[in-house]
UniProtKB/TrEMBL annotation:
One of its GO terms (biological process) is glycerol metabolic process. One of its GO terms (molecular function) is glycerol kinase activity. Belongs to the FGGY kinase family. It comes from the Bacteria. Pfam families: FGGY_C, FGGY_N. It is an enzyme of class 2 (transferase). Residues 4-244 form the Carbohydrate kinase FGGY N-terminal domain. NCBIfam families: rhamnulo_kin. This is Rhamnulokinase. It comes from Mobilitalea sibirica. Its EC number is 2.7.1.5. SUPFAM superfamilies: Actin-like ATPase domain.
Length: 466
């Protein structure tokens, strides 16, 4: 009988249920369900609709049942840094505020009063992003101290969904490291740091590694979806999963996980937390079997997604690429990592304003806007490649571009030109694949990550651009 594994991969703009199974030695994927995800305004804050998302998780499970393809195991991954605080009855305290919300403004100073930036980086190896969990928790402490007083558990978003499915609270390692509260050396919660910040240490429970069994479905979930299933922890941070699926045959490679964010970096068994890496804001996120993802967050396709939404444009991302290509010689460039692009009221106005302020031609058409973004992204990738090579002292021959954004052909071409590297494109569904690989390693389908990556290499078409 065919054995199926189910990855539920939820990104900032959509989620999907992807079944994976082996077919003639190849990993085969089938998307059984897809749903939207959007930021919503709640009590003046940008929030996630966790209730709605959980309903979608259940809806997709019901479809598996309907198709009579019951997975052997399943696991959920999402974006990082966001969390819930649960009270003694397992109920969420407060709104589920999203990381793009402005509640973290000024929180870096509050944290900075208690611990220096250098010291925080030394302890955690995590880059400074104003939306890191540490700053979000500081905002809760400032504005809603009662939530922290009442909290019994801290869970990241995928942990919370796993809890709703199984009744078991289980914090997963790769995502926990993005809180900036995990110690780089001990690879465990940094309780000293929590004391320093006056965060209640007892709400941060034991951290578990990918491949840990969380449990089986609760009775009410079994009744609703029509089957029971074992929940196995994948790398619950989507980027952690995506990087697992990079089909590299070489030890040393640069990856670009391309989606709402562009995450560019390397995988390493040792962290890089020198003064140079701090200055260039490289992070060391925790990975499978305690690997590190030394990478940088670059604003990514978020900017294009916003423009498309703002114009209520029906054009596909391929069409957008085409329009951008037609405006290829539009000369303006943006600092894609400028804070102003994180969550502007209007991305279009913000870009126009930026060009005006920097005395550059102002883009008017959608093609010009997209060209301006794509060129700026490609240039930012090139700078990052140079920084990585300086950081590690290694010259890399190629870059693996994985994830939904690897479909943006024009951006790939610009990236090849700007970096001068060989570009390997795909797989597009890297995040779901990485999620599945961990579950399949747990079930001994693959005996190691090397083995699993080899299978990705043979199972999916990888395009090469030189
Ligand atoms: C990508 C991602 C990035 C993280 C950002 C915010 O989806 O997970 O890795 O920095 O979202 O959580």
């Amino acid at each position: 009988m065919q054995k199926y594994y189910l990855a539920i991969d939820i990104g900032a703009s959509s989620g999907r249920h992807v079944l994976g199974y082996m077919n003639n030695g190849k990993l085969t994927l089938e998307e059984v369900y897809r749903f939207e995800n959007n930021l919503i305004k709640q009590n003046k804050h940008l929030c996630w609709d966790l209730k709605g998302l959980f309903q979608e998780i259940v809806n997709g499970l019901k479809i598996c049942k309907k198709q009579n393809r019951i997975p052997t195991s399943m696991g959920i991954d999402t974006w990082a840094v966001d969390f819930v605080l649960l009270d003694k009855d397992g109920q969420i305290l407060g709104d589920t505020v999203a990381y793009r919300d402005s509640r973290t403004n000024g929180m870096d100073r509050k944290v900075g009063d208690l611990i220096s930036l250098e010291s925080l980086y030394q302890r955690t190896g995590i880059q400074k992003l104003n939306f890191n969990t540490i700053y979000q928790l500081m905002a809760v402490k400032q504005n809603h101290p009662k939530y922290l007083d009442k909290a019994k558990d801290f869970l990241m978003i995928p942990d919370y969904f796993h809890y709703l499915l199984t009744g078991n609270k289980c914090v997963e390692y790769t995502n926990a490291t993005t809180t900036q509260l995990v110690n780089l050396k001990t690879k465990d919660w940094d309780y000293e740091l929590m004391d320093l910040l006056e965060f209640p240490r007892d709400i941060f429970k034991a951290i578990h590694m990918p491949m840990t069994v969380v449990g089986s479905f609760r009775k009410d979930i079994i009744d609703e979806v029509g089957f029971d299933c074992q929940v196995v922890l994948p790398a619950t941070h989507d980027t952690g999963s995506a990087v697992l699926a990079v089909p590299s045959k070489q030890e040393d490679f640069i990856y670009l996980s391309s989606g709402t964010w562009s995450l560019m970096g390397i995988e390493s068994m040792k962290p890089y937390n020198s003064a140079y890496s701090m200055e260039h804001n490289f992070t060391n996120e925790g990975g499978f079997e305690y690997r590190y993802r030394c990478l940088k967050n670059i604003m990514g396709l978020w900017m294009v997604q916003c423009i498309r939404r703002e114009l209520k444009s029906k054009c596909t991302y391929e069409e957008l690429c085409q329009l951008a290509k037609e405006a290829d010689d539009f000369p303006s460039r943006l600092d894609v990592n400028a804070e102003v692009f994180l969550a502007p009221e209007s991305m279009i106005q913000e870009i126009k304003y930026y060009c005006k302020k920097t005395n550059q031609p102002i883009p008017v058409t959608i093609g010009e806007l997209a060209a301006c973004i794509y060129h700026s992204l490609a240039e930012s990738y090139a700078v990052t490649v140079n920084e990585i090579e300086r950081l590690t002292g290694i010259t890399y021959s190629g870059i693996h571009i994985v994830g939904g954004g690897s479909n943006a052909g024009y951006l790939n071409e610009l990236t090849a030109k700007a970096t001068g590297k060989e570009i390997y494109i795909g797989p597009v569904e890297a995040t779901a694949i990485g999620n599945l690989l961990v579950q399949m390693m747990k079930d001994n389908v693959f005996c190691s990550l090397k083995d699993a990556r080899e299978c990705v290499y043979h199972s999916f078409e990888i395009q090469k651009l030189i």
